Amino acid sequence: MQTGVVKFFNESKGFGFIVDDESKKDIFVHITGLNGLTIRENDQVSYDIVDGKKGLNAVNVKKM
């Protein structure tokens, strides 16, 4: 699993970005990858990465 910090998450639109701790790249996260979890800016999270239509997506997101 990867780890990172939530940079931005828009609850009304259902998406945001996580900054990966290792690569410092922004990873897209969609509400469907949260499994009912609520995340906010600056939350520490762990997640898996999958290839999406437009790049890397975070899935199986969990708060640390």
Written account of the structure:
Residues 1-63 form the CSD domain. There is one protein chain. 0% of the residues lie in helices and 59% in strands. By secondary structure, it is mainly β. It has a single domain, classed as Nucleic acid-binding proteins (OB fold (Dihydrolipoamide Acetyltransferase, E2P), Beta Barrel), CATH 2.40.50.140. A hairpin with a 4-residue loop joins strand 1 (2-10) and strand 2 (15-20). The protein is globular and about 30 Å long.
Tell me the layout of helices and strands:
Elements: E1 2-10, E2 15-20, E3 26-30, E4 44-52, E5 55-63
Parallel strand pairs: 3-5
Antiparallel strand pairs: 1-2, 1-4, 2-3, 4-5
* Main sheet characteristics: 5 strands, mixed, barrel
What is the global morphology? Answer: globular
Question: What Rg do the Cα atoms give?
Answer: 10 Å
Distance between the termini: 12 Å
Our estimate of the beta-strand percent is over 45%
What is the H-and-E element order? EEEEE
CATH topology: OB fold (Dihydrolipoamide Acetyltransferase, E2P)
Q: Low-confidence stretches at least 5 residues in length (pLDDT < 50)?
A: none
Q: Provide the CATH top-level class.
A: Mainly Beta
- Helix/strand/pairing class, anyone? mainly beta
Proper CATH architecture: Beta Barrel
Compute the average pLDDT: 96
User: What strand line-up does the widest sheet have?
Assistant: 1-2-3-5-4
The beta-strand count equals 5
CATH superfamily: Nucleic acid-binding proteins
Quickly count the domains: 1
Count the DSSP helices: 0
Helix content: under 10%
In short:
The protein is mainly β. 0% of the residues lie in helices and 59% in strands.
